[in-house]
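USER: I would love a firmer grasp of how sequence relates to backbone shape in proteins. This is the protein in question:
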Amino acid sequence: MEQLSLMNLIEQLKLSPRVKGIFTTGTTATKLTLSSDIDLVIILDKNDESIKSVYTKIENHFSDIFFFDIDFINQLKSRQEVSGNNFDGMFLEWLVKGKIEYDPESLLLTLKNIIDKNPPLQNVTDSEKRDFWIKTNYNFIANLRYYNSSDELYRKALEMRLLYSVIELITAYFSFRGIPWRGEKAAVKYFEEHDLEFFSVFQKYTQSNNLDVKMKYYQDLFNKIFFGDYQKWEDDFVVGISKKDSYKPELTKWWEKLSGKK
């Protein structure tokens, strides 16, 4: 099937009475390169289909098409604070950096003007920070156990565990500092501007082929991620987790009482 050009697709979308706004963002709104994907945001009258996105190809570029509706736009107008890592925060950033392609009722322009004058605070929730605090500490302890095992199977499995453990450290680094995650390219730019030491250790890790060397740099990265209230677990840690996989201090106290720890 022949692919539509981006401009032809936008013109086609404008014909639908259900489409109330369109904007491009990222490099799609500035200048596409060979390595760019296409980011397109469509505002519907009402998202009865509960559609989130469509992945496809446009002009031989991988394309990410996101859908929102008028109710979503309206509820953002009065928000003073949003979660930076959900679609509220991402949508606002996309719109600020984007290019409005179609806006017959000025829905997008009105919201963009509100954001320009009084941008809502984009925070990272405490629950997100706690989740990373648990994951990073838990996996660090497990990874050390695998590394120190005399069983070769454990060490082979550790190579797999490190694949996700390291990226987990990077995302946790941002979460603990209250910085919304905006992808790997934004992370690289942040480290190059604000924390070259951390980025240098990460690069040494990626260039390592020996498990012993990898573990050394993994431990260095682990020790550098913590910030504020979120720190490395002490040797006598007790962390209670609910059935919903969330940290509950009252469960920690419950266990200490039950076990006679205190």
Observations:
- The mean pLDDT is 94.
- The first helix runs from residue 6 to 14.
